[in-house]
Amino acid sequence: MNYGMSMTTDKMSYSVDEPIKTTLKVFNYTQEDVVFHFNTSQRYDFIIEDEEGNEIWRWSKDRMFAMVLGEETLGPTNPEIIYTVEYKGKLSSGYYKVTGILVAKDRPMSGNVIIIVK
Known about the structure:
Blueprint: E1 3-9, E2 13-14, E3 20-28, E4 34-38, E5 44-49, E6 55-58, E7 70-74, E8 80-87, E9 94-102, E10 109-117
Parallel strand pairs: 2-10
Antiparallel strand pairs: 1-3, 3-8, 4-7, 5-6, 5-9, 9-10
């Protein structure tokens, strides 16, 4: 694929008190510029949900973002943007869905990874 995003975590299996490093990579390896427009200064978000779909953590919760329009351009001279966040809370044993979201108003994208906590 020449244009899109990928969502990864640094591992697939974690211990209860281990930090989880999440990475969202948005890329455009085509020869044409792609412009992403945003309603605020926020560019991305990360969410962790338990097996029942309950939201355990959201990176953007309790954060403030400037109310300014913005844009990011990806193309031949700047083909990718990488956003990385680390969750440092404690999770109980079980499976979790970790979702990364590009919050562009005109081209929103998201992806997820399933992890296990032992």
